[in-house]
Amino acid sequence: MTMQRFVPGWIGCWLILLAGLWPSMGMAQSESRTDRIVFFALGDQGTGNEDQHRVARAMEQVAARDGGVDGVLLLGDNFYPDGVASVQDPQWQTKFETVYAGPMLAKVPFYATLGNHDVRTNGEAQIDYARQRLGSKRWHMEGHHYFLDQGRTSGGQPLLRLVILDGQEKVKRQEAFVHQAFSGTGVRPVWRWVASHYPLRSSGEHGNSKKLLKRLLPALQSQRVDLHLSGHDHLLEVLQPPGEPLMVVSGGGGQRLYSLGEKSEWSKFIAERFGFARIAATAATLAVTMFDDQGAVLHQTILNAIP
């Protein structure tokens, strides 16, 4: 696994150029399979209620049944209603550590971003919890913006690069980090993912974001991003607009569900359901599968890699 914190200026650019070299420099790599990487993704989960626990049990069930999971993406609103106050806040136990404690999920990293509820009290505490390696040490939030590489092809190409953005920060900063993270001269990844709390397009109550479509979307298109993952709208949706990244809204992690807004013409699947997304990447395909809170498959979209 290769991970990079956001470091502004020439230092950050220099580190990113070295990203493809880090495995040979002794950086930690995943000890599991490297030619196929599986992530779960969900947001708006941090309630501590039965709905969150039920989704967690479904994640555990799917991981055990379908060959494991390499990591989990938490897409923001990790602690309702107002985030955590500090790294000692008891919500770390009741809304994260003890919820995802099954034998499969207890041994994988959770990569998180901040949602609007997370910053109401002390958003920095979630970064500090990661940096101080507290609790089970599964919580990763290496900065407001960060990225990681996962997997390797037989030719040594990174299987995927995942860029995680803090949607609370100015869009200009998010745009700059997308360009910075994908513009290095190292070996290019097969798949490019970007995750944040806010969707660019959604058929939920919040609808499309004009600001993100105007400023962030061109950056994603310029850097040939394949997949954008978000939460914020409390439902499950997959959208495939032509010429844009595949967009997954996975906001059914545990908070009360939203009713549908105006359905997008590019929506391939939408459901007012609790559940989560599973993304499986190989050198040839990217499979996005939506599951409900019982572990049942609701939908699947498959992308083929472009040579």
Query: Care to count the β-strands?
Result: 15
* Structural shape: globular
Largest sheet: 8 strands, mixed
- Kindly identify the CATH topology: Purple Acid Phosphatase, chain A, domain 2
Helix content: 10-25%
Instruction: Tell me the count of domains.
Output: 1
Percent range for β-strand residues: 25-35%
Low-confidence segments: 1-32
Characterise this structure.
This protein is α/β, with parallel strands linked by helices and 307 residues long. The chain has helices spanning 9-17, 50-65, 91-97, 124-131, 171-182, 210-222; strands at residues 2-5, 37-42, 71-74, 110-112, 139-140, 146-152, 158-164, 191-195, 227-230, 236-239, 246-250, 267-271, 275-281, 285-292, 297-304. It has one domain: 4-Layer Sandwich (Purple Acid Phosphatase, chain A, domain 2), CATH 3.60.21.10. The strands form 2 sheets. The chain has an 8-stranded mixed β-sheet, covered by helices on one side. Strands 5-4-3-2-13-14-15 form a 7-stranded mixed β-sheet. A hairpin with a 3-residue loop joins strand 13 and strand 14. It is globular. It starts with a strand and ends with a strand.
